[in-house]
Amino acid sequence: VERAKEIADRGNYDQVWCVFDKDDFHPNDFNKAISLAESLGFGAAYSNQAFEYWIILHFEDHQGGGMHRRDYDKKLNALLQKFNLGFDGKKSKIISEPIFNLLEGVDEKTGNERRALAIKRAERNYNRLDGTNPANEESSTTVFKLVSELLKYID
């Protein structure tokens, strides 16, 4: 967030977003980063514990609740296996083009766009929380806020 402020101070931006994970950061540091971003008028697209939770929500209606980030790769790879895809979150964390295309695709069970499902699921889970201590609110993500904002600019 501090680095984002340095960059924002040098430019003229309509919006600034900070995207980060909880990982193993101290709860106070995580919560302070969110508070600082909000106090500066920045968006905060965070995931507790890791970004992979956002990806999981494209495929599964995970209701939130604790899931350690070490388990995200296994869960995500189990979901991707039927599409003959894999994700290496331990080394590269790269979202390959085939995975990205799958995330942008349609869920075969519901007929809905996966992205729309992920937004709906993440927002529902987020709204169930009181937001007073995001470091303790796992599994949760506010990436849906950033994605919803970006979708406003797509033709």
- Main sheet summary: 3 strands, mixed
**Helix count?**
7
Identify the strand order in the major beta sheet. 1-2-3
Mean of the pLDDT scores?
93
Query: What letter string, H or E per element, gives the SSE order?
Result: HEHEHHHHEH
Backbone CA Rg: 16 Å
Unreliable stretches: none
Present the secondary structure layout.
Elements: H1 2-10, E1 17-21, H2 27-39, E2 43-48, H3 52-56, H4 69-81, H5 97-103, H6 114-127, E3 140-141, H7 143-151
Parallel strand pairs: 1-2
Antiparallel strand pairs: 2-3
Helix pairs in contact: 6-7
What would you say this structure looks like, in words?
The structure is a single chain. Strand 1, helix 2 (27-39) and strand 2 (43-48) form a beta-alpha-beta unit. The protein has a 3-stranded mixed β-sheet. It is built from 7 helices and 3 strands. It has helices spanning 2-10, 27-39, 52-56, 69-81, 97-103, 114-127, 143-151, and strands spanning 17-21, 43-48, 140-141. Helix 6 crosses helix 7 (143-151). Helices cover 45% and strands 8% of the residues. The chain has 155 residues and is mainly alpha-helical. The chain is globular and about 45 Å long.
